[in-house]
Design a protein that fits this description.
Length: 406
């Protein structure tokens, strides 16, 4: 089993397991699909950093001229460390702290996607102290059902995100009156893993009504941020191609002067990566057979958290009869599973590749059970780059101090 020009077995022998492995060619192809689909339209593609924030991944997108959608000061620091430009960064998120706002203002980011009245006032106050003007857009909650998992739905009125549509006009008026804010645009993001464009088009239509109401009051916007959310294939989903997904959105804004902004995350990195793990034990049982591997829920929490499904492929194809296994890790939780009911012909010591693990894998990993987090690699043709070293046991408690004895 190969990734680009390298055998996964050779990668595991060199770097150990568990290890995340990404394809640079796949990252580039996914980004270029958005650029091509936008055609001659003025549009920005801002990668949603939360999907995978590794510096190697970020630098690959920065080299392509990408913008970045961030949700924390830590993500901003990562973007800048990877060579990304601050003036291509939009800052989303419901709970921006004063320190994060100050950091972003001093860096000179493109825009804050403001999500509450309190945030609007705080941003104006901090900008005044720093003697700068804060560029803002309001993230509007259109109350549209994205038809996805409830944990990754963000555009319904009971979600914590954004400003209610009914409140947006008044908040724009308030923003226009505040001396240290500059209104640049409007934003909307309804959720992740969208499998058709209809909910996004519905949300964009509601946004467009508000844009025209603002223009009638003399508030003219430079850009319209339509968020991200296009899904990927994990199992048997059939998400549209990027061009087909964007086509009705682009048509809705045909002939308008505002720049469009898209914020894809999962669709850029999800299918570009896999988690490589080794079988420690095969444990037969009366009701279940278990393949116990060296990866665990701390490495990939999607199956436990969302009941997310990842394809599991033995790196070495064996000819013996398959057996049905649950693929589980060594963590002391019954929820520590990576896959259930998979038919495989495998032996102890075999390698397994968990597919579609490039998004919300390493970025959501933890040190639960005092487990060092995995290494990360990017394969580029027949070369491999170590873009994150495997953590050591000592690094797990390097910032901790025991109580003095006696």
């Amino acid at each position: 089993m190969m990734l680009e020009g390298l055998a996964l077995a050779d990668i595991a022998a060199r770097f150990g397991t568990p290890v995340y492995v990404y394809s640079r060619a796949a990252l580039i192809a996914a980004f270029e699909a958005y650029r091509r689909a936008s055609g001659g339209r003025q549009a920005s593609v801002c990668y949603a950093v939360k999907a995978n924030s590794n510096l190697g991944v970020l630098s690959a997108f920065a080299a392509l001229g990408a913008g970045f959608d961030i949700v924390s000061g830590g993500e901003l620091a990562r973007v800048l460390a990877a060579g990304g430009r601050a003036d291509r960064v939009v800052f989303s998120g419901t709970g921006k702290s004063r320190d994060e706002m100050r950091q972003a203002l001093l860096a000179g980011i493109r825009c804050f996607n403001v999500e509450s009245a309190g945030e609007l006032e705080r941003l104006d106050e901090l900008a005044a102290v720093l003697g700068v003007i804060a560029p803002i857009a309001l993230r509007v909650n259109p109350d549209v059902d994205p038809q996805t998992h409830p944990y990754i739905s963000t555009g319904l009125k009971h979600n914590k995100f954004g400003v209610a549509s009914d409140d947006a006009l008044a908040l724009y008026r308030r923003a226009a009156a505040l001396p240290h804010l500059r209104i640049r645009g409007i934003a909307c993001h309804i959720g992740s893993q969208l499998l058709n464009a209809a909910p996004a088009v519905e949300a964009a239509g509601k946004l467009l009504v508000l844009v025209d109401l603002l223009a009638a009051e003399g508030i003219h916007l430079e850009h319209i941020d339509l968020g991200g959310g296009l899904g990927i294939r994990y199992r048997d989903e059939t998400p549209p191609a990027v061009a087909a997904y964007l086509a009705p959105l682009l048509a809705l804004f045909e002939g308008r002067p505002e720049e469009l902004c898209f914020e894809p995350g999962r669709s850029l990195v999800g299918n570009a990566g896999l988690l490589l793990t080794r079988i420690e034990y095969l444990k037969p049982g009366e009701g279940k057979h278990f393949a116990i591997v060296d990866a665990a829920m701390n490495d990939l929490i999607r199956p436990a958290l969302y009941d997310g499904w990842h394809g599991v492929v033995p790196v070495l194809a064996r000819t013996g009869p398959p057996r049905r296994y649950d693929v589980v890790g060594p963590i002391c939780e019954s929820g520590d599973f990576l896959a259930r009911d998979r038919d495989m012909a495998v032996e102890e010591g075999d390698l397994l590749a968990l597919l579609s693990a490039g998004a919300y894998g390493m970025s959501m990993s933890s040190n639960y059970n005092s487990r060092p987090r995995a290494a990360e690699l990017i394969v580029d043709g027949d070369e491999v780059h170590l873009v994150r070293e495997r953590e050591t046991l000592e690094s797990l408690y390097a910032l901790e101090r025991p109580l003095p004895l006696g």
